Amino acid sequence: MFSYRHAFxxxxxxxxxxxLTLIATLRHLMAKSAPLLLADTHAGAGLYRLDxxxxxxxxxxxxxxxxxxxxxNGQADGGAPAPEALRDYLDMVASFNxxxxxxxxxxxxxxxxxxxxxxxxxxxxxxxxxxxxxxPSDIHALQANVxxxxxxxxxxxxxxxxFAALPALLPPPAAAGGSRRALALMDPSYEIKTxxxxxxxxxxxCLQRFATGVYLVWHPIIxxxxxxxxxxxxxxxxxxxxxxxxxxxxxxxxxxxxxxLSASGVFVINPPHTLPAAxxxxxxxxxxxxxxxxxxxxxxxxxxxx
Length: 306
Ligand code: SAM
Hints:
The chain has 306 residues and is α/β, with parallel strands linked by helices. Helices cover 40% and strands 17% of the residues.
């Protein structure tokens, strides 16, 4: 069974890249009043304690979101303001925590999506959120966390394989007026080597079923052929489907004697036209707060965008 637990990694540099990109993308999509189908194929537990044993043992949030918060607080005391997408991400995390106190809660992707869906200006739109998770402990935690929201039928949680479940959701139902809109986050743990091929195959099916959907795929950058191959494969799929794409990467560099993931990427098919500029403005500030050593850097590459 799976041994990956996101509680050790919540709020790390990879979450910062992924969640900042997710929020910037959804802000743009939600500026339109038509409803959205949101899907999170690998949902995790939904909420994480930053003061838990897991978070303190790994120290990943301390070198991630908490370092970003410290940089932003320093800037508020006289420096340049944080770029908008970074500010928006930090405001999102802050909204789950008591003002003026150390942050204790980190929202995972399901709660970030739910918070944006539940915003006052969005409340009458009837977006739907579909969550998939397989880990017995995380599904239990996710169900308990979501139950607190009393969101009713707006949020559905299924103990199902997210790779197989996503294509079956598409195309999304047509809203009054006929529009069909969907955004899916695919954020596997890549514990199993075949996850790379399964992610690409699922996206290929999704593009065949609903080419105009917005698909965000997170991937680790590690010395493994499958990991290098995934963004290349996604680029080919997007180009073949004649869809625009964006690929952003963040490498915080390897500190001496420190193991663990130092780089990751997020591949977005059909990104909003505002996303490249938003990420190019935010990632230098993110890297400035999180850089650790050799190899550090960020990239934003795009293709097929009008
Ligand atoms: N998306 C979450 C976030 O950003 O807050 C984090 C997800 S974590 C990186 C990946 C999750 O996928 C783990 O909780 C793991 O148990 C779950 N998982 C692994 N394989 C899965 C599969 N085939 N279908 C659904 N969930 C799976």
